[in-house]
Amino acid sequence: MKTFARWLRRNMLVPLLLVLGAGAAATIYQSMEIDALGYRQLQNAYKAGSSAFQARVAEAMQNGTVSRWERTALLRQYWSDSSALAVEFEVGEIAAERQALAALVGGQEGHS
Length: 112
Prior knowledge:
72% of the residues lie in helices and 0% in strands. By secondary structure, the chain is mainly α. The protein folds into two domains: 30 residues; 76 residues, no CATH class. The chain is elongated, with a radius of gyration of 20 Å.
């Protein structure tokens, strides 16, 4: 058993640490806030989406920002209901796009 433990430490420790490090880096990256284009995508999807989708967007915006994890889940839900999403490449600053989505979500909550 000592020979196996030595072999494991010598040959598998570095690859295992690389995999764990990459997983940690990916988790940190995905938990970061989306960019301005992501907020614009959610605005366009919110306008065209179902009431269930709009409720999910409102739920995601409760803390004021949307993570990359949340955007991926939201867009998957949108695409399961719809077939296309118009994307505008002319977007403002991230704070302005975040505020525009928050205003859109806040303005629609009373109408749902």
